[in-house]
Please model this.
Amino acid sequence: MKKMLLRTVMITMLAFCLIGYAFATGGSDKTANKAVELHWASIWVGQDSKAPSVEALVKEFNDANAGKISVVVDPQPDYNAYEQKVRTALAAGTVPGDVFTIKLNPTTAQFYDSDLIMDFNTALDPAWKATFIAGPLEQSTFGGKMKSLPMETAILPIWYNMDALRSAGVSAVPTTMDELYAACDKLKAAGIAPMTQMTGDTNAWTSMLWFSQLAVSLGGLDVWSKPFTDPAFVQAATIMKRLIADYSTPDAVGLGAGDAGGHFLAGQTAIFSNGPWYAGRADLKATPFFNSIQVAPGPYAGPTTNFMLSRLQANICAANPKDANRRSAIITFLKYLTSPASVKRIADTSGSMFAIKADYAPTLDLQKQFYTLANQFSVTANDLEAAMGPEVTLEFGQQLGALVLGRITADQFCALVNAKISR
Model:
């Protein structure tokens, strides 16, 4: 009995010694002297025009913070799959990374109810807040919560390969629908598919932008608050059927964004629609017609004119950790990433536009055109995806294909999309 008692006392004394040693050396927190490793689920990788500058910035940040913070980029090259990954992760009670981006729309705004995501109201000190443009910050606030920071913005004009248009006898960008139809007829006669349209992927991107331009022009800046059965939407759908069936490539129904862009890059189509980030692509710069590209608002089809389609393209979200060190590391990295100096570098190499006051002056003509348009138009309107979210946009693309193939009418097309909104 005495031996057992002595053994217990010795074990207890040894334990206290070990605890004392641990406190003396800081060993009670095994991670205290280790770098905080942050994971960034990033879409700015691969062929994305922001990839080279973002990769360089992350490396420089890691070098400057060696032993303290390490950012690991988890590549997300498939934009459509990534958006689904974000929704799936949050529904499962987790986050896709310590840092991640979202397209801010009615669907993703629901993420603001999640305690998994950091509220930047408590992190955005006055100096940091002052670097953001006020309007996008207000757009990123819902119910007093700011659970995402506006990063990338965009205006969404129509692109024209003027070399191709001039070769077909068209000397100026079309400003009316009649001028557009006439230009498309001349391009067809010259053996050039006039425009790039698509109904595939999760958002039928290029065609969704065309439809949005038409709908706002026909129905007004508040068109997205109207039922989708409104005459403005029906008329826009009727025009879209003609643009796709008569003036696009034969594979437009079901076509995805990669192949749609490929048609324009190969000079197979002369009219395209995309945002400023596309202007920085190396494969676009390598085309023989790069210096001939002009961007302009789409032809106005209705009484509402003098506006540009615009959106918040990417907002930054962060995990909401309980650990103070991890939280501090996240904020440190995001201050660096969103700093005017960092944003200026990303803009310079990509052509993208941002919600941060970076004092950036583009040098390439195509990028200058985007900034000129942005400054020229004080009135902007959302596109369909930004206004209604991905589920409605997916339905739009699926039914748009049926409309073009003649399986449904324009009225039926609008009724089907409207039913999705109602659900």
